[in-house]
Write a structure and sequence with these properties.
alpha/beta, Rossmann fold, 2 domains, seven-stranded parallel sheet, 11 helices, 47% helix
């Protein structure tokens, strides 16, 4: 009907312009992050690795950051490049300004630009409040908060005139306030505050800033910390309305949305990806 109407309007049989556009795009499937370059910190395993792989599968060139686990980071790179994607592994401690600046410089050297920054690197530990040391406080805040600050500081000059997307990985713990996680909860609450403020400061520069806060997610770190044993998993599942434990891929899909143009009207948001378990 639409084609016939257009033909009558011009008085001859001819392919309408919307059909020409469709034909022109045949054989080329645009991916959600085509032509974008992303840095994902703490991406050698767990949620960071899941995000890096998802970004690579959707067309982004990915800088896979790691602090110590070079083999893990290189494995993530191989998985991305083995499927036709682009990725490099870059070592760096996000809590060191020189390393943060080098990460961004390596991204521009390898891929010419920067469009997305995912601040995923993070550390935590469990203890009653009075057993935490000053050293442990600084360890967690240095990575979780200072690292986020320094990476954003380094990335800002690299974003182009079209802006970009910053995704700060927080935690549902910031609102659930789990006992024995006082330092971690405080650090992730600080990340939420930084996200809200920077969304307003950077909005005029077309840079979106959002926080992605996972709930209980089955990662290597969670297993190492003993929070994904059989009994612990049962408790998580029982308290989760969607009836299972989160996986890195669950979080990666939300990060992919936030990094893409589909989220172009979102900034300053804190999105909880936890299956309803608050």
């Amino acid at each position: 009907m639409r084609h016939n109407w257009w033909c009558k309007a011009i008085g001859k049989t001819r392919t309408p312009p919307w059909a020409l556009a469709s034909q022109k795009g045949q054989g080329t499937i645009m991916k959600r992050l085509d032509n974008k370059v992303a840095i994902v910190t703490g991406a050698s395993k767990g949620i960071g690795a899941g995000i890096a792989k998802a970004f690579g599968a959707e067309g982004a060139a990915v800088i896979v950051n790691y602090t110590r686990d070079q083999a893990g980071a290189e494995g993530v790179v191989r998985e991305i490049t083995g499927k036709g994607g682009r990725a490099i592994a870059v070592q760096g401690d996000v809590a060191q300004r020189s390393d943060a600046q080098r990460l961004v410089a390596e991204a521009k050297k390898a891929f010419g630009r920067l469009d997305v920054l995912v601040n995923n690197a993070g550390v935590f530990s469990f203890a009653p409040f009075e057993q935490f040391s000053e050293q442990e406080f600084h360890r967690q805040f240095n990575t979780n908060v200072l690292g986020t600050f320094l990476m954003i500081e380094a990335a800002l000059p690299a974003f182009g005139a079209e802006g970009g997307s910053i995704i700060n990985v927080g935690s549902t713990a910031s609102v659930a306030a789990y006992p024995t996680l006082s330092i971690y909860v405080a650090s992730k609450s600080a990340v939420n505050g930084l996200t809200r403020v920077l969304s307003k400061e950077l909005g005029p520069r077309k840079i979106r800033v959002n926080a992605l806060s996972p709930g209980g997610t089955e990662t290597e770190g969670a297993h190492a910390a003993g929070v994904m044993g059989a009994e612990a998993k049962k408790q998580i599942i029982a308290s989760t309305p969607l009836g299972r434990v989160g996986q890195p891929e669950d979080i990666a899909r939300v990060a992919l949305f936030l990094a893409s143009d589909d989220a172009g009207w979102l900034t300053g948001e804190i999105i909880y990806a936890n299956g309803g378990n608050m």
